[in-house]
Amino acid sequence: MDEMFNLLNNVFDNLHEGVCICDEKGIVKYWNRSSEKLYNVPAEKIMNKHLGEFFPKALNLKVLNTGKRIDNVFHEPVEGKLVILSAVPIYNSKGRIIASVSTDRDITDAMNLTKQLEYEKKKVEFLEKAYKNEIASKYNFSSIIGKNKKIIDAIAIAQKVAHTSTSVLITGKSGTGKEVFAKSIHEASGRTGNFVAINCSAIPGNLLESELFGYVEGAFTGAIKKGKIGKFEFANGGTLFLDEIGDMPVEMQVKMLRVLQDGVIYRLGSEKAINTDARIIAATNKDLKKLILEDKFREDLFYRLAVVQIQLPPLKDRKEDVKDLANLFFEQVSAQEGIKITNIDDKVYKILTNYKWDGNIRELKNVVQRMVVLSNNGKINTESIPEYIIESVSPEEDLGEDEFDLERIVENVEKRTIKEVMKMVKGNKQHAAKVLNIKRSTLYYKLGKYNI
Question: Which residues contact 72 (CB under 8 A, 6 or more apart)?
Fold first, then answer.
């Protein structure tokens, strides 16, 4: 009999659940090791004591009073300790309750984790909604500023194609607003999924596949334990923007072509097909047709991507838009930095309009930001403009009173051209005269005339 009791005692002590046995008066007669760990109450402290002294809300006591069993209920015996508890009454042969037995499973950590996950889920949903609202407010066709005919034509094409599932290729130099156009197309498309952007030149070729398609656990060394969702899946029902598509490795282009043809992707390390409904918008600042001739870009992929092609002009060809764009950026940066701009000198606009803007709209925005944060008393004047811009623009050309003075216009063009050529040939006058197709003596005369 003693051996049987010791066996049962060992069994109870090695159970994961806490076990408590009380007699008919609620006096604790058994308290196993798991109960000790669960409630941090040693057996010697609680044994032969009334359970209510330690746990006033103990369900064991309720079972003794009602004679009814309780199965798998959520319970908080003490503040901050959450358990799943079952308790049953024990009857003798005469039908009288002589004891109650309870088992308690600790779920405190699991519940805290669930609450944390729920909180994080709500936070993600809030941020996702806020992000979509920001996209909607900042990136739509009405927010694209432009009087230039090429920009107006580009907007018209983008608006027409937005509601379709057609792939779009946006070309143009860096900083011309390719991603702004892509986001505006997405916003006007009516698609409910995410706008997901990936820069093909910023990710090493050996990692680009896993970024686009995702991977399963153990797909490669260093892979996240539970795998990772790819950009295609994240953009499902939305738009996948492939920026700098011209830098995508050729071997990756083959896999991209297959996805565009079949609408199916495979995570790395998996043979399970995943259907994708991501609309593709690609962008590049490179000449893809030239890359095709050099065998650096697949011709079949080009025609898959360029079903509709939108060419964005450089800012130097949009002089009529510079002032409006500058004003937009002055307004945005002022609000962002909390700096009120009360006055902008008209000469500032003239200089900005005649600058060549190699960095296009992005450079203009950065210059405006610099002028705002370094402004004094809310005023922007020619002294606010970076020196490299002032030096590259002829003051006479931009600050002259008569914009129709043909002689002055010719002189300004001549002066600017000579300065650019001299810079290009690093001051070699003989070479400069040859490039300009004038005599060397003529060049010396003009260098002196314009004080170059």
Answer: 84, 85, 86
